[in-house]
Batch of 4 targets.
Target 1
Amino acid sequence: MTATQGTVPASASETRVVRLTVSTALCVTIELNDPVRFNAQSRLLLSDLKNAVRGLFELQPYSAIAALAFSGVGAHFCTGGDLSSRKDASKGQPESSLQDLTASLWGQSQIVRQMRELRMIKCGAVFGKLIGGGVAFALVTDW
């Protein structure tokens, strides 16, 4: 990842639901981009967000990025956990469903912690529904 203007490329073989864009030399944008599911925290969204935040965290010492804009595409910022994937998981073993939920919550807490540790101004463009884990994402922003 480089601190150049434009969208940071992702692997062509995978669908990305988080967009990381360097708007200027001083500002970067993270967009949750799964409007069909109201930017619910699916495994894919959390994985993409984790990778985007990790990339910013690693890039930070070598760049002049001073601000992060954090938003969601579509009518809602983030409606929290993706309950449709939980429903499918619950058809199997209840223990595995609980383990999946625990792993998801742990992963989300790690993303929030790492976002909090970014040494840049974090602005949230929060609109529409904001439920559960989406609230945690909104609260990590400064404005």
Note: The helical segments are 43-59, 83-89, 94-117, 133-139.
Target 2
Amino acid sequence: MMPSSTLAVMAMIGTRALASGMDRICWFWLIAVTMAVGIWSGAWALTVVDVRILYALAGVAVLLSVLNAWFRPEVVISPRLERWLGPLVGLLAGVLGGASSLFGPPLIIFLVGLKLGKDDFVSAVGFLYLCGGFPLVASLLMHGIMGREELLFSAAAVLPVGIGILIGQRLRERLGGPLFARLILGFMLLLAASLIVKAI
């Protein structure tokens, strides 16, 4: 269910984002720990749960992410709420990521609610994606979902994925932020629909 190139994407996003700043990412170490637990559980679910259920959950998660980005509800998470909500969000993101490689929706909504500055937001996303990548590989290997061939293919995908990221950045500059964002949302909406259709 998880394309091998996803691991390459996560590694590149993580390392690139971490380069933008590491001052406050230590706030999220507990989230990273609960993510690791969730990842193991999500990967295990791939071996026992009907794949259609996992497709449905992944599709709903992507759809919620699209709706959140489109309507932009005002979500504010106080420091007091963050202390106990953060680990729960990490666990949820881990389960979702372990089963589908889609960590993003719960994490993005949570981090947006913290009202972080741009640099802190980028660093937090990079830190959590990088921390999620290693447990994901280990869990998939332990559960026999990923083998040697998939691992080698993931490593080989780093270069083309990097080229794709650079092309995407150029497109964003040429098309402008708002239009590019709408195109991305449209692509994510198609992805959500595809996943939900596979679940039917």
Note: The longest helix spans residues 118-142.
Target 3
Amino acid sequence: MNNIFIILVALFHFATHYATAQKVKNENGVKVVENGKEGLWGKNPKLKIDFIGTIGNPESNDKNLIFNSPNDLAFDKEGNIYLLDAGNSRIQKFSINNKYITTIGRKGRGPSEFLNPNSISIDNKDNIYVYDCLQNCIKVMDSKGKQFKMIKTVGSYSQIYLLDNGNILAKKYESSNIILLDASGKVIDKKANCVDLADKGTPDGRGGNAFYYSFTLDENNNIYTAYEHQNRIDKFSFENKNLLNISRDVHYSLKRKGNLYFRLSRSIGIDGKGRIWTLTAKRMPKRDELVFHSSASEGNISTHRLVDYVVEKGDLYELELYDAEGKLLYKFPLDRYYSNMKIKGDKIYLIDKDFTSCVYVYEIKEL
């Protein structure tokens, strides 16, 4: 009898833990998943991430391996890596095994030249698209780096993504819209083919915070967004239907303290099995871990102040892993600062733009 009682108590605690870990409901046709503090895997993850090396080396004598504020990367059909070395106004191409291949571009205003390149994407023909916010254009080059097209843009963008049909998804600068451009840069049907990220504000009533987010796509062209100042991950269909809303217990208040403009989720990616990963802060930073900085302004690019993590190594960030349905599975601790993340298949590429200016490569391994 005592044994039966003990088993029932254990089952009750087990059921209670997982019932409170995730709450799933439907709000106006949108699946809403409210995750608790712990993931479904508890302390026994079903996969691991192994560090397999870096792209770049600040101590190297090879100038091809020394980067200055790398801020984005993309992949061709063979898995080669194109790193946007923004501070050096160039693209560094590496093999799937992280070996240097060639350099594309240089500083300037001419063909295959950049002033402030801030996003890169590659189409299904391995043509390279680079958005340069100071030149207000997308420069299109073949796989060898020869420019054959320039797309003038109206307004400014902070992220572009090439679709298989040649159209371009573009995240508007300081806007809550992802818009669809045709191959000439013209906006296609604003109402039917853009994602409008309704600004839900923050706990202290600030608006405008749907401006700061990253986005990615899965193999079915569903769009996923993660936000810097909101406890929110969204999934949209390509036709702008909100399919999924994810939140989690972040352990601390999101209310602003003084002039602290803190970033929660810096990046989002989808792995080869359709799982959702975010590069997210695990705690509120300390004052001595932060630095205020302003972005340069030229033309119609406005200057704004942000707060970044100023300590190169520490426990501020972690990788959150969710299943395709939005349920939190596990949190992988990180021991250093990263500014961006890209995922290709079973590889995670974490970019340190500000300290080492390197890319740290991890491999996802199922257990």
Note: Confidence is low (pLDDT under 50) at residues 5-19, 201-208, 293-307.
Target 4
Amino acid sequence: MTGHVEDVGRGRWKLIVNLPAEDGSYRRTVKRVGASGVREARQKLARFIVELETAGAHRECLTVEDMLGQWLEEGCDHLRPTTLHFYRWRIEHHITPKIGTRDARRMTPVELARFYRDNELSETSRHHLHAIIKTAYAWALEEELVTGNPAKKVKHPPRLSPEPQRTWTDQEIATAIRDAAGTRLEVPIALAGWAGLRRGEICALRWEDIDLDHGVLVVRRSLSYVCGELVEQAPKTKAGRRVVPLAAPVAEVLRRQVRRGPCVVSRKDGSRVPPHDVSSAFRRFVKRYPREVSFHGLRHSFATNLIYRAKADIKLVQELLGHADPATTARIYLHPTDGDKRDLMARFTVAISTDWSAADCASPSLDGGPAASTEPKAAGSSPAVRATSSPATRHFQPPACSASPARRPLRKYLPGALGPRGTTQECWSLSAAAGADRRSKPR
């Protein structure tokens, strides 16, 4: 078994080992390590070869479990602890038990599609599995552990289809805040429903981050619960570090609170509250209401109420929520109700009724200009049209041929060319009139 090292920069080195196969060929396995120089890298290469020989890693088969394990150890060091924990949990509970023993190099798109289809999970969960496998294969391909990425060739992969969130109106949120007054849920409900903060951001919020005199708060950190420990980290996205102006009722709620520690949301002894405790307490709290929502649904309610009640701009809502892209806000966080749709159609009805009334007062014109008069013309005149006396049955007839007919261009059927009352029959009558004019002219 032989190998060599490659410098990839910034103190990182590749340990590349040639593993012999049963057919006489060789297969390369790669490991990234940190080393101060080539001598230390070669020492780590020697230890890596011993580990491979001891563990029997020179076997021909690279299982899916082995590939995913290497990816978690070497390719996910830049991820947040919560994201890494989520990936590891999905792999251990849903991927490894089903296809962990399969040869990663011989996995086909058809087999992956069957794995997704036979997995008794929601469409969103299957999408997460597909994303993990696809990313792991992409890393293994870059490290030359595999020769292809079958996950990219899966036809009709699982799609992300978030279920519609149930939301509350401003009045329902106000009722919940009044009912929760004096409890540990009063502040979380106010900050989520009327300021749009995530539960991790609420639990990590400190009094030093709030300026009640100017009515603003600053989101600087988030609190997560990973493997039995509370972990404080940066917000979910770069845009998550933001300044949020406070509505007057939210500032009033915060002024009433007793400060038991550095954090706004804390226990009686001043210790921090885990985010999942807030969700569990709120889940029990909302059972008293006819329409239950999740705690994260309060954040969705904040976005929905800003757009459809306060008529806010989508860009402003995106920045208040801390999203990196307005498309995320529009696609996931807006939930119009039937009442919103009825209000929109009521305003639209007022607009079109005004236009319809204005159009109903005038007769249509042949040229789209002023309405043609229905008064009798003087003798010798050549009216362009002749209308019936009943407005309800008004239609146009071609004019009689005369020595000097009025020249009109040939008109095809163009929607709206004759105004609100124009019909196909009228358009073709004009076409016939223009044709008669051309035929009557001597050549």
Note: Residues 365-443 have pLDDT under 50 and may be disordered.
